[in-house]
Design brief:
Helix content is 27%, strand content 32%. It is of the alpha+beta class. Strand 7 (135-136) and strand 8 (139-140) form a beta hairpin. 34% of the residues are buried.
Length: 169
Amino acid sequence: MATVRPAEQGDLPGILDTDRQSGRIPLATAALAAALADPNRLVVVAESGGEVVGWGKTHYWDCPDGPAPAGHYLGGVTVRPSQRRQRVGAALTAARLHWIWDRTPDAWYVVNAVNTASIGMHSAWGFVEVARAGQFHTTTFDGGTGLLLRAHRPGRGLAQEPAFRRRAL
């Protein structure tokens, strides 16, 4: 199993390589470095054998945009193809949600309406649809429809892991 930790500047080559291996256009190094330096954002990596095998980030929007409120949002997650279906994405999501829920009771997430795998994974943390639109903040969607989802922090303190994370692997 991979270990999840906050990303550091030295992880940038591994993050960019993870994007390339996943068939994604890598983010600009300057944009990643800015995200790492921003105290209102979190960038995490999943590491296995000393190698970055996945990463994810959060966003903070300080003003609302239509139905999308100001607040902390989960950003994208990328996992190397060789590490998929091993709960790496779920571990990256849990780490980011704990960080958000330490700061505010609501976590937000936008996704393409056709991305049923992501929607299903996030439902384990209680994400529910709030709105549909062609754009939320700066995010647009292939096919034209995106979903805005919200999850409330469960109980008091840190959020619990979803049920599938508590089971023995």
